[in-house]
Amino acid sequence: MKAKSGFTLVEILIVVVILGILAAIVIPQFTDASTEAKESSLLSDLQTMRSQIELYKIQHNGALPGTQGFNFTQAMTRKTNALGTTNPAQGRVKYGRYMREIPANSWNDKNTVSEADTTPSAPDNSSGWFYNTSNGNIRSNDTVDPNHWYW
């Protein structure tokens, strides 16, 4: 009689169980890495925007972006003079572009900025960022994690 070659049902089940156990260990690691990457990107974007706001203040005699006739996005992405205007007749246009564009919030993929002179108590996800025109504070405006609002 010829011996049959191949795997038995028990051998196949053992391999499937081992692969299931390995998948259960590895998949959560990828999920955590994705979350950490988004948080790192958010913190990096906030740090960049905050440093550019400070540079704008220094070059515009203490004035905050968005208070000299432009909104925050325009002030950050256009060249201006010391008065914060783009009119060369009022002084040489030599400051800026502080950013090529406003970065998209990594949690809601919005690159728009809501502006007001007071900070609301919580994010509303209407834009990617919230900018306070009275104190220059910029925050993440996503509702994914309440802690993002306080970074």
Detail the topology: elements first, then pairings.
Layout: H1 9-59, H2 72-77, E1 113-116, E2 129-132, E3 138-140
Parallel strand pairs: 1-2
Antiparallel strand pairs: 2-3
User: Into which percent range does the helicity of residues fall?
Assistant: 25-40%
- Shape summary: elongated
Number of contiguous helices? 2
Strand arrangement across the biggest beta sheet:
1-2-3
Report the uncertain regions. none
Q: What percentage of the residues does DSSP assign to strands (E)?
A: 5-15%
How far is it from the N-terminal to the C-terminal residue, by CA?
75 Å
Mean pLDDT level: 90
Total number of distinct structural domains: 1
- Describe the sheet with the most strands: 3 strands, mixed
Oligomer: single chain
Structural class: mainly alpha
Task: Please provide the count of β strands.
Answer: 3
Instruction: Give the C-alpha Rg.
Output: 26 Å
Order of helices and strands: HHEEE
Tell me about this structure.
The protein has 151 residues and is mostly helical. It has one domain. It is 38% helix and 7% strand. The protein is built from two helices and three strands; from the N terminus they run H-H-E-E-E. It has a three-stranded mixed β-sheet with strand order 1-2-3, covered by helices on one side. Strand 2 and strand 3 form a beta hairpin. The longest helix has 51 residues. The chain is elongated, with a radius of gyration of 26 Å.
Name its key features.
single chain; 151 residues; mainly alpha; 3-stranded mixed beta sheet; 2 helices; 3 strands; elongated
